[in-house]
Amino acid sequence: MEDVSEPSEKVFMTELKIIGRTHHKNLVKLLGFCIEDNHFILVYELMKNGALSDFLFKEEVPPTWSQRTEMALGIARGLLYLHEGCDSPIIHCDIKPQNVLLDSKYNAKISDFGLSKLLQKDQTRTDTSARGTVGYLAPEWLKNAPITPKVDIFSFGAMLLEITCGRRHIELSRVEEESEDDEGDDLLLVNWVSGCVRSGRIDKLARSDPEVLNDIKRLERFVKVGLWCVHPDPTVRPSMKMVMQMVEGITEVEVPPMFYH
C-alpha cells in the first residue's frame, strides 16, 4: 500500500483488525500482512480468473447469462455483508468491476474493502476519477456531501446494469452501431436502459440472446433495480438489504422514477 495517510503501525493494525474480522464467501480473503520500515503490505488469496471487468468486456467469448446473474447476486451478498453483516459496517467507496475478482470457479468476490480510511484524504475519490471510472461515482462525491452506504448502492447499480446488459456504462462506438434504435441515447447505458423500460421494450436489452429472452422477468427485475440504485438522490436509493430482496425476487420491484431524458 502506497500513500498511507498516517504511516503508523497503530493505524494500520486498527484497520487490519476490522478487515480481518470480515469473513464472507463473496469477499476476497485477507491471508496476512507485513510491516517493514515504510512498507505496508497486505496478502490476499489468489483469484485466478482476474477482474470482473476483463471477464465482462475483454474476453473473446462473453460470459453466459447464468454466469452474469450469479456474479451479480454474489456481489450483492458481499456488499450486504459489508454494510450490515460485519461487526464494524464498512462503506467500500470504490465499487466497480475492476474491484470484483473471480476465483478458479468464477465466483465473484469483492476486493479492496476497508482500505479507504488508510489512504490519504480524497485519494479514493481522485484515484477513481483518474482511472476513468466516473460512471460509478455517486453525485455526493462531487458535492462534498456526507458519504453514506448509499454511495456503494449507486456504484452497485451502475455495475448491475453493466453485468445485466453485457456492456460498459459508456461506449462511444455504440452511437453509430445503434443509430437506428428509437429508444434514446445509447452512448450512456443508463439512458438506453431507462428508455427501453419506459417504452416497454425490455426485450431489446437481451440483444437476441435466447438464454436472456427465456429469463426476461429476471432481466426486467435486474435493470429496474439498477435504475433505482443510480437515482441521483441518495434518499431515494434502496438499502442494500432491500436491493438483495429485489434482485432475488423476494420483493416486487416497482417501476423506478424515470429521471433520465
Automatic annotation (TrEMBL):
SUPFAM superfamilies: Protein kinase-like (PK-like). It comes from the Eukaryota. Keywords: Signal. Gene3D superfamilies: Phosphorylase Kinase, domain 1, Transferase(Phosphotransferase) domain 1. Pfam families: Pkinase. The keyword Metal-binding does not apply. Residues 1-261 form the Protein kinase domain. Transmembrane segments: none annotated. PANTHER family: G-TYPE LECTIN S-RECEPTOR-LIKE SERINE/THREONINE-PROTEIN KINASE SD2-5, RECEPTOR-LIKE SERINE_THREONINE-PROTEIN KINASE. This is Protein kinase domain-containing protein. It comes from Solanum tuberosum (Potato).
